[in-house]
Structure formats: structure tokens, C-alpha cells
Write a structure and sequence with these properties.
Layout lengths: L1 H13 L18 H5 L13 H4 L11 E13 L2 E17 L2 E21 L2 E21 L3 E22 L2 E23 L4 E8 L2 E17 L2 E18 L2 E9 L5 E9 L5 E3 L5 E4 L3 E11 L2 E11 L6 E13 L2 E11 L5 E13 L3
């Protein structure tokens, strides 16, 4: 009984932060209701306040002060894990100033919670990763007749906790690593109107080093007969870095006379698989290239419908993930109320989930 109690205490100490939230969060990498509803094919038609994330040059289309806010909700099944998760994801203020457009925004472009548990030949293993990156952005845009240019200056804050517990008949080990760091990055974007119908968009995001302090705690207990020996003061403090990879987005769009817009887009990363690294070489996330296509169709002066498709890879496998998206906007006296739904999955794995975004945007009327 004493041994069992000891192991229970160690599990509690090792996973106290992870067990505080029983929901299985997945990584979030899409901001913007319109962009999500079009499968991410948004870099060439970005023209609202969510352009701060997708292509800052798109803020050049804003003519009046605008406030934008959104939340996302994820629900589904990922490898037999139930998902239910709300996330206030983005808040942006954009306004014209002396021929330029200024944008101020706060966003959570990445959040992930993952839990794994394995039992094999008397060995019990459990790993929990809880990580997120938040960002404050200042955007400055110069608009021209056919070309808009924008730059983002980003302050990034990174936090993650990795906990691991292993037990067997002779003892148990518990590891817990916690990191908190920050750093600066920059984005450059452009939208070029080739003619009245065709637009080309591109965005580059710089790599970033997020420097901070990492603390690793290690507890080891060995059991011999009725004796239990534990080393509980093994701690390591280091000044380490997270790495956010350089990336780019590129796309082209077609606008028809009746107002319908159709676009394709591609996102890729400079580092192999776009790995987000933590200190000591731990991989926190892997982002794969993404190909997307979308359509935006006005059905009334006050309503718009959107549809999209995208394709990417599943983390850790060669399987292709296919996603379908849809959404719409209703407008009323400067107020835009938008929603979007994303459904993705693959046939070979239990990796199917749906995610929704709801946003409100208000444009101040003269």
C-alpha cells in the first residue's frame, strides 16, 4: 500500500498542471473567420482586420476605423481522445493615419495540449505536453493604386510544460520541464492588383528566437524490498531558446463582375517540416505545407457565403489530411457577424475533428 501511495503522489506532482484541464486541445494555426471558411486561401484577398495575421498588406483596403474580435471552438475525436475547447483567439484594432493604415492586435496563433500513455511489459509511461504562443502585433501599411505593402512587428511570448512519468516494478522516474520565454519577429506582406479581376498576394514571416528560462525537475525512486529511496532535489536551470521557423504564404485570386471571389493559396516553412523547437531539442510542434482553395460568394447585399478545401499532412505519418470548410457573414449598419466551420480527417487514422470560429467586426461609420 505504501508503494502504491508513493507512485500516486509522484503522478500528482508530475502532472499537476496537465491534469488541471481534462480536455485534449489540439494545435491552433488558423486565425480569421473568412480565411478559415475559405480553407486558408486568403493571402491574396485579405482586406479586413484579420489581415494582420494572414497578410498585413490587406489592411490597406480598410478606409475607416475597425475593431475585430473572434473566438474558436473545437470539438471532435483525435485518436480516441475527446476534444471540447474554447479559445479567445484574436483581437485587432485598425485605423487610417495620414495615408497609412495602423493595426494593433493580440492573437494566439498556436496552442497545443497532448497526452500519451503507454503500458508495455511492466513499464508504465505517460507524457503530457501543454504549450502555447501568444503574440502582440504592430502593423504599418502603405497603400497604393495597385500595390499595398505591409509590415508586422511582433512580440512573441512562449510557454510550455512537458511532464513525463515512468514506473516499473523496481521504481519510478518523474520529469517535469517548464519554459517561459519571449522574442521579436517580423512579417512582410504585399498585395498586387494585376488588373481589376486578378490579384496576387505574398507574405514572409521571419524566424524568431524566443529566449527564456527553462527549469527541469527530476524525481527518482527505487524500491528494494520494504525500502524506498528517493532523490527529490534534482533540478536544472538553463537559459534556452525556442525557435519559430521562417515561413511564406503565396496566392492568387479572381474576382468576377458580380462580386464572387475565388482563390488558391500555399503555405510552406523553411525548416524541414517547419518544426517549432523548445530548448534541449524537444519538438513542440510540426507544421506541414498546406495547399488550399476557396470561394466567396455574395448572396445579398448584407450576406456572403464561403466555401473551401485544403490538404496537408498528419503529424508523424505520411498520411494526407483533407479538410472541408464553410462559413458566412451577415452585415448590419457597420457590424459584421461571421462564422466558419472546419471539418478534417483521414481514412486510415482516428484523427477527425471539427473546429468553429465566431467573429464580430465593427467598422465606424462616418
Amino acid at each position: 500500500m505504501f508503494k502504491i501511495s508513493l507512485l500516486c503522489i509522484m503522478i500528482t506532482l508530475s502532472f499537476s498542471n496537465c491534469l488541471s484541464n481534462q480536455n485534449w486541445k489540439i494545435e491552433t494555426s488558423s486565425i480569421g473567420t473568412r480565411a478559415m471558411a475559405m480553407g486558408g486561401a486568403f493571402v491574396s484577398i485579405a482586406d479586413d482586420a484579420s489581415s494582420l495575421f494572414w497578410n498585413p498588406a490587406g489592411l490597406g483596403f480598410i478606409e475607416l476605423p475597425t475593431v475585430y474580435s473572434e473566438i474558436s471552438y473545437t470539438i471532435g475525436d483525435v485518436r480516441y481522445q475527446n476534444i471540447q475547447h474554447f479559445l479567445p483567439q484574436n483581437f485587432t484594432l485598425a485605423f487610417p493615419l495620414r495615408g497609412s493604415i495602423i493595426g494593433l492586435g493580440y492573437s494566439i496563433p498556436f496552442e497545443k495540449y497532448r497526452e500519451r500513455e503507454i503500458s508495455w511489459q511492466g513499464l508504465n509511461y505517460k507524457n503530457c505536453t501543454d504549450s502555447h504562443i501568444s503574440r502582440i502585433t504592430l502593423s504599418i501599411v502603405r497603400k497604393g493604386k495597385h500595390l499595398h505593402l505591409g509590415v508586422n512587428l511582433n512580440y512573441n511570448q512562449s510557454n510550455f510544460i512537458v511532464s513525463t512519468f515512468e514506473s516499473w516494478d523496481k521504481g519510478a522516474d518523474s520529469y517535469r520541464t517548464e519554459f517561459s520565454g519571449n522574442g521579436l519577429s517580423m512579417d512582410l506582406g504585399a498585395i498586387f492588383g494585376i488588373n481589376e479581376s486578378i490579384s496576387f498576394g505574398i507574405m514572409f514571416g521571419s524566424a524568431a528566437q524566443l529566449q527564456g528560462d527553462e527549469e527541469t525537475e527530476y524525481i527518482h525512486c527505487s524500491i528494494s524490498g520494504d525500502s524506498v529511496l528517493c532523490d527529490t532535489n534534482l533540478s536544472l536551470y538553463e537559459r534556452v531558446e525556442n525557435y519559430l521557423p521562417f515561413f511564406y504564404r503565396v496566392g492568387v485570386s479572381l474576382t468576377e463582375k458580380l462580386g464572387g471571389r475565388y482563390s488558391i493559396g500555399f503555405t510552406s516553412f523553411h525548416e524541414e517540416n517547419g518544426i517549432i523547437y523548445s530548448g534541449m531539442g524537444n519538438r513542440i510542434s510540426i507544421e506541414y505545407p498546406r495547399l488550399s482553395a476557396g470561394a466567396e460568394i455574395p448572396v445579398k447585399k448584407w450576406a456572403t457565403l464561403r466555401f473551401g478545401l485544403f490538404s496537408t499532412k498528419l503529424w508523424g505519418t505520411a498520411d494526407i489530411v483533407i479538410g472541408v470548410t464553410m462559413g458566412g457573414t451577415v452585415r448590419l449598419h457597420g457590424l459584421d457577424i461571421s462564422s466558419a466551420l472546419e471539418i478534417r480527417g483521414i481514412a486510415k487514422e482516428d484523427y477527425n475533428f471539427s473546429r468553429g470560429i465566431f467573429s464580430i467586426s465593427y467598422t465606424f461609420i462616418k
